[in-house]
Specification:
- The complex is a heterodimer of chains A (224) and B (356).
- Chain A is an alpha/beta fold.
- Chain A has six helices and ten strands.
- Chain A starts with a strand and ends with a strand.
- In chain B, the strands form two sheets. In chain B, strands 3-4-10-6-8-7 form a six-stranded mixed beta barrel. In chain B, strands 2-11 form a two-stranded antiparallel ribbon.
- In chain B, helix 2 packs across helix 8 and helix 8 runs antiparallel to helix 9.
- Chain B is elongated and about 95 Å long.
- Chain B starts with a helix and ends in a 12-residue tail after the last helix.
- At the A-B interface, helix 1, helix 2 and helix 3 of A face helix 1 and helix 7 of B.
- The structure holds adenosine-5'-triphosphate and magnesium ion (MG).
């Protein structure tokens, strides 16, 4: 079975005058469909950089990135945009919902971008499934932090991507809400055979994931 | 337009205020344009609407009738060089009615031969003949009526209104057309001269004229007392209004764009193309500008109907349409700076909670 996400010997450095700042050193990892992986590590270890490279947002200095068997490392920005739209679902820290779109429209926007018609029913089902049936016509400002993050999960799932990337999805939530959100994410991954990588500071949710990676000073290691 | 329409609906107040400002600017531009056209017509309609294509003036008259004198013999000689030419004398004066001697009205005499091609077309009453004078419609506002008699203030000669022509004016005063016969009675000392020769020319070749030169209608209008200064300042105002609106709108849209930079980063990370965002921004600006312009057009069109006669205001549907079009284009152009900013947004800013 091909891995949904595969990184081989990925290196990322920034040139600062003569000095070379290495942010990621020889990072390799593979995530299979139905696998929920977490990446933990101290601040400045390179977690966000790793996620950006996995998400077709940042080009690595060396190494390769594969998405469902296709190498995407050297594709153009335009192709990356298409890949992000159709194959990757992002969940950002602070949810990053669009303030002037209702909960329903947050999801519908994704299908409008992907030029898929008649997706209102799917949006409604997803939101109902995530316990937001009563919030469909509300704007993000009227939602609680946990509800917003659940909308963000629904939005990430809207275009049925193979890969879900979550950037500290629990950072702005209390521990109970945080657990709820991660549980929902896990259930989606397992039920629909998605691959997911979650970057987190929150050690308390690690029991919910399948694999844990530790990153320190740009070196990624699997934790048992 | 998915995003544009929803953003407009959500931030009604913000976009309403921007619309209001565009409305005010467009309204002001249209209003000044109307006034400029109104004043221009008020200033020189008797020249601009005359069938004469040019005028032969004395050399050194600097395109002004008031500085030109030609002897009648000279005028006759010059007239032979043109297919159609007829003498014309213009003189500003004052008139009053017998009943209302205290109320004088400034006007301009146009001395024209009855039956000549520059003789006025009467809208009501008779055409110009020796029994009386044909006057500008504008005199009606001062209470002058058909068949009435009035007195030339300077000479005391009494003249009878036998016809009204359209709102002919010269240097903002109504025109009274008189025949050379009547003029002789009023100005016995000036029987041997005229101001100029009105000509109708079809060829472009300029005949050689000794001691005189041919001046185009346009040059005459430019030199009607007060015309250039008036139109110049109004044109300047309009030009500045355009510049102001470009700058104001550009700043507005730029500020709105800056506020949304983070959001644009997220939208791009989610898979939105820059071209889509550009269309979203232009769509938003286009709708706001279009709305404002349409309202301004309606208000100006309505205003044109109710403006008092004392405030000349002329605006054509075509000018309203062109101005509106220019404004929508200007509004969209003002978004260009913002578009550059949007194009530069890095989708990667959405990751890692950057920008906080
Ligand atoms: N554009 C850049 N130029 C130079 N150095 C950079 C750049 N981007 C990131 N870095 C450096 O790379 C390192 C890793 O950054 P990254 O944001 O990936 O860390 P992180 O693990 O996500 O930290 P945090 O938990 O605080 O979010 C940091 O030391 C940062 O200073
Ligand atoms: Mg980070």
């Amino acid at each position: 079975m091909t891995e949904t996400l595969k990184l081989t010997n990925v290196v990322k450095y920034y040139q600062d005058g003569d000095a070379r700042i290495e942010v990621l050193r020889e990072v390799s990892l593979a995530v299979k469909p139905g696998e929920f992986a977490a990446v933990v590590g101290p601040s400045g270890a390179g977690k966000s950089t790793f996620l950006s490279i996995a998400g077709a947002l940042l080009r690595p200095s060396e190494g390769q990135v594969y998405l469902a068997g296709q190498e995407i490392t050297q594709l153009s920005q335009k192709q990356w945009t298409k890949i992000r739209l159709e194959q990757i679902g992002f969940i950002f820290q602070n949810s990053e919902l669009i303030p002037y779109l209702t909960v329903m429209d947050q999801l519908c926007y994704m299908s409008v971008l992907a030029r898929r018609k008649g997706q209102e029913k799917r949006a409604q089902e997803l939101l109902t499934h995530l316990g937001l049936a009563k919030r469909l016509q509300q704007y993000p400002a009227a939602l609680s932090g946990g509800e917003r993050q659940r909308v963000a999960i629904a939005r990430a799932l809207m275009n049925d991507p193979q890969l879900i990337l979550a950037d500290e999805p629990t950072a702005s939530l209390d521990s109970k809400r945080g657990r709820e959100v991660v549980t929902m994410l896990r259930d989606e991954v397992h039920a629909n055979q998605k691959a997911a990588v979650m970057v987190t500071h929150d050690e308390r949710v690690l029991d919910l994931v399948d694999t844990v990676y530790q990153i320190e000073d740009g070196v990624l290691k699997k934790k048992d | 337009m998915f995003l544009a329409l929803r953003d407009l609906r959500h931030a009604k107040l913000k976009f309403g205020l921007i619309s209001l400002i565009i409305f005010l600017i467009v309204f002001l531009v249209l209003f000044i344009t109307g006034l400029a056209a109104g004043l221009a017509s008020d200033n020189g309609a008797a020249i601009s609407e005359s069938p004469a294509s040019g005028y032969v003036l004395q050399k050194g008259a600097e395109n002004r009738f008031s500085r030109s004198t030609l002897t009648k013999t000279k005028a006759q000689q010059l007239a032979k060089k043109f297919k159609q030419a007829t003498p014309l004398t213009i003189q500003q004066g004052t008139i009053q009615r017998a009943k209302d001697a205290a109320k004088k009205t400034d006007m301009a005499y146009f001395v024209v031969k009855q039956g000549s091609f520059i003789a006025p077309k009467s809208v009501s009453g008779q055409t110009l003949n020796t029994t009386g004078v044909v006057v500008s419609d504008k005199l009606k506002a001062s209470g002058y009526r058909l068949g009435q008699k009035f007195k030339d203030s300077q000479s005391g000669v009494t003249l009878k209104i036998i016809g009204f022509t359209t709102a002919m004016t010269y240097s903002h005063t109504p025109v009274v057309y008189v025949t050379p016969n009547q003029w002789q009675k009023m100005m016995p000392q000036e029987t041997q001269t005229v101001s100029a020769l009105a000509v109708k020319q079809t060829t472009t070749t300029k005949p050689k004229l000794a001691g005189a030169h041919l001046v185009s209608k346009e040059a005459i209008i430019q030199n009607v007392p007060g015309y250039s200064a008036e139109q110049g300042s109004l044109d300047m105002m309009i030009a500045f209004l355009y510049i102001i609106s470009v700058v104001v709108l550009a700043v507005f849209f730029y500020v709105i764009t800056i506020q949304k930079i983070r959001e644009f980063g997220v939208l791009k990370a989610l898979g939105t193309k820059t071209s889509y965002l550009a269309r979203y921004l232009i769509g938003e600006i286009g709708v706001v500008a279009l709305l404002a312009v349409i309202i301004a057009d309606i208000v100006v069109a309505a205003l044109a109907q109710v403006m008092p006669a004392a405030m000349p205001f002329i605006i054509s549907g075509q000018i309203i349409l062109t101005t509106s079009l220019i404004f929508v284009v200007v509004a969209v152009l003002s978004a260009v700076v913002s578009l550059v900013k949007v194009a530069r947004v890095d989708p990667n800013t959405a990751i890692g909670g950057a920008g906080e």
